[in-house]
Amino acid sequence: MKEIIELLTQKKKTISTMESCTGGGVVNAITNIEGASEVLKYSAITYSNEFKIKMGVSKETLDKYTVYSPETAKEMSKVITDFTGSHYGVGITGKLNRVDKENPFGEDNIVFVSIYDKEKNQYYPSTVKATKSSRQDNKELVIGEVVRILKEIL
Length: 154
What we know:
Helix content is 42%, strand content 22%. The protein has 154 residues and is of the alpha/beta class.
């Protein structure tokens, strides 16, 4: 993540995150790096559908595709970018080592990641299979994927 913070700083770019299953793991990794305040605008942890909607994800998207979908991750990355005026937005949703009784749809142990680039109006989607036995290790897999994508973009 240090390299990402350095690249964002050099390019005078900003980032915001909207995370669900990672519970702020990405933003935590960002804020663990000195200089993060130069590039991080805002982060939202939206575990519930209610707060995804309050942040701008459409109820129609959740109803049509479910909360556990690439479409929802894509919308999360765009709405957090729009909300904050950041150059990049990260959206993450999925299931890590548990069944969600409130949202019984979608495959277990799959996480959807989307990074939105405002200047290019382009999405960078990815799917991560949560193959590790612990939630923390699976969060690290997802954070690693976010770093990989950002390195490609930057």
